[in-house]
Amino acid sequence: MLEHDLLSALFPALPLAAGEAEFHAPSIEEFFPPVVLFEGTPFELNRIMIIRLIVTFAIVLFFYLGTRRMRLVPTRFQSVVELGLQFVRVNIAEDLLGKKDGQRFLPLITTIFFLVLGMNITGIIPPFNIAGTSVIGIPLLLAIVVWFAFVYAGLRKSPGKFLRNTLFPPGVPWYFYVIVTPIEFVSTFILRPVTLTLRLTMNMIVGHLLLVLFFSATSFFLYEWQDAGLMRLFSVGTFAFGFAFTLFEIFVAFLQAYVFALLTAVYIQLSLAEEH
């Protein structure tokens, strides 16, 4: 509740009145839509939850249709699916983990990449217009999965060395471990999932608020402000900025998916490093 009140204070309605017209800037309420299905039950769904379910179903359907009848000479659709899978395999998994470990963790890294990408891209797709990753649930869940994969990979390879070298880095004088070990513990086992979560969530929140701001301002100048006069010309600028940021959000959707998957591979690679 405190978080909700704080964010509401940061994004209040802005009165820019002309007659009875009033411009309302986007607020944090955008990320707390009302329940639309199964209200009052443990399975209640709001708009963002429905978007997440649709994206998950769409991803499963996409890969099912693209891989159910693989051909030696691929169709266009099969080529698109293979191109996406090859991108993750070559440029993320095998590039960082090598062929053996890359193949081993490829299902996890591929799932994370396409799930984050799908959830991100809904922020610019009508009628969704909000990213499934703009609320902390999905980013946090994925960050926890990555954390477990990182710990599992290290413990599976060499339990003793993994924990010892992570918490007690070699080459450090023993009397410094009083300071170094707590710092290593916090940075490795706490800050990594936190930063993964916040990086993705904050990017999607800011992108959504900017798009709503520009396109709401365009609508305000054109249709809601009755006595706008020459001020209507501002709608050209706000629409241009909105269009430019829409293209930028497409880039950010891909970039954040790539970064999340890349960091997943980096963390796993660190846990498998020889010094562990």
User: Largest beta sheet: what is the strand line-up?
Assistant: 1-2
Helical stretch count? 7
Low-pLDDT stretches are 1-20
What is the chain-wise order of helices and strands? HEEHHHHHH
Q: How does the overall form come out from the CA principal axes?
A: globular
β-sheet strand percentage: under 5%
Class per helix and strand makeup: mainly alpha
Find the count of extended strands (DSSP E, 2+ residues): 2
Helix content: 55-70%
Mean pLDDT figure:
85
Biggest sheet overview:
2 strands, antiparallel
Q: Over all CA atoms, what is the radius of gyration?
A: 23 Å
Number of domains: 1
User: Whole-Å distance between the termini?
Assistant: 42 Å
Describe the structure.
By secondary structure, the protein is an all-alpha fold. Helices cover 70% and strands 2% of the residues. It has 7 helices and 2 strands, in the order αββαααααα. The longest helix is centred in the last third of the chain and has 48 residues, at 177-224. The model is unreliable at 1-20 (pLDDT under 50).
Key phrases:
mainly alpha
SSE topology:
Elements: H1 2-10, E1 35-37, E2 45-46, H2 47-67, H3 76-121, H4 137-157, H5 159-167, H6 177-224, H7 234-272
Antiparallel strand pairs: 1-2
Helix pairs in contact: 2-3, 3-7, 4-5, 4-6, 4-7, 6-7
